[in-house]
């Protein structure tokens, strides 16, 4: 019997978070992003960035959570990190290029990453990650949140809209090796 739960990321999770991020990008975004870009991403570099995010977040309101699936087999319990969520206060990364960079958005949170490794999908891990993240946002007195999604990423958009998120009308395009990849921003109130 499998049990899923969410906990704060620990420094020793950084390598697994990086592996999950790369695996998920290479599967879910293989038709959105140039293959050579996905192939060239250095997993060790990502792991070090995640370790820094866990050990020394920019503020106490920046958090990294992991989803864990726990299985019991023949009297042994095994745990697998299967997904993660990273979030913090609304900042420059949550803005579109033409937005007012001086507006006060101190009560708005932003998801920077919310990924579940595809082979562990459809088991409630994404919902648990999002629910735990929202609980922490409420503790931190955020009143709303935003998240960017690739325009062509129907799965992420469907997941977020099914939990009450909606597009806010803001769009941008990421320049990935001279390929513009459109994104739309979704928002919710807490």
β-strand amount: 35-45%
Number of helices: 5
Biggest sheet overview: 7 strands, mixed
At CATH's second level, what is the architecture?
3-Layer(aba) Sandwich
The average pLDDT score comes to: 93
Could you say how many structural domains there are in total?
Answer: 1
Helix content: 25-40%
The tally of strands reads 7
Structural class based on helices, strands and sheet pairing: alpha+beta
Gap between N and C termini: 33 Å
Global geometry: globular
Please mark out the parts with pLDDT under 50 across 5 or more consecutive residues, or reply none: none
The side-by-side strand order for the widest beta sheet comes to 1-2-3-4-5-7-6
Series of secondary-structure elements, N-terminal to C-terminal: EHHHEEEHEHEE
The level 1 CATH classification is Alpha Beta
Describe this structure as you would to a colleague.
The protein contains 5 helices and 7 strands, in the order βαααβββαβαββ. It is of the alpha+beta class and 190 residues long. It has one domain (2-189): Gcn5-related N-acetyltransferase (GNAT) (Aminopeptidase), CATH 3.40.630. It has a 7-stranded mixed beta sheet, sandwiched between helices. β6 and β7 form a beta hairpin. α1 (14-28) crosses α3 (43-55). The two termini are 33 Å apart.
Fold topology:
Layout: E1 2-8, H1 14-28, H2 35-40, H3 43-55, E2 63-73, E3 76-89, E4 108-116, H4 125-139, E5 144-150, H5 154-162, E6 166-176, E7 179-189
Parallel strand pairs: 4-5
Antiparallel strand pairs: 1-2, 2-3, 3-4, 5-7, 6-7
Helix pairs in contact: 1-3
Please outline what is shown here.
It is built from five helices and seven strands, in the order E-H-H-H-E-E-E-H-E-H-E-E. With 190 residues, the chain is of the alpha+beta class.
């Amino acid at each position: 019997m499998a049990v899923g739960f969410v906990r704060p990321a620990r420094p020793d999770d950084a390598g697994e978070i990086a592996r999950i991020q790369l695996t998920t990008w290479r599967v879910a975004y293989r038709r959105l992003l140039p293959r050579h870009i996905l192939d060239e991403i250095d997993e060790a570099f990502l792991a070090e960035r995640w370790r820094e995010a866990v050990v020394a977040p920019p503020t106490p309101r920046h958090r990294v959570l992991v989803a864990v699936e726990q299985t019991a087999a023949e009297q042994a319990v095994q745990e697998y990190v299967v997904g993660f969520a990273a979030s913090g206060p609304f900042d420059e990364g949550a803005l579109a290029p033409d937005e007012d960079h001086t507006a006060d958005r101190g009560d708005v949170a932003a998801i920077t990453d919310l990924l579940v490794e595809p082979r562990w999908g459809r088991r409630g891990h994404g919902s648990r990650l999002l629910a735990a993240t929202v609980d922490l946002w409420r503790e931190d007195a955020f009143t709303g949140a935003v998240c960017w999604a690739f325009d062509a990423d129907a799965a992420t958009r469907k997941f977020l809209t099914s939990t009450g998120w909606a597009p806010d009308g803001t769009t941008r395009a990421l320049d990935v090796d001279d390929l513009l990849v459109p994104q739309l921003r979704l928002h919710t109130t807490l």
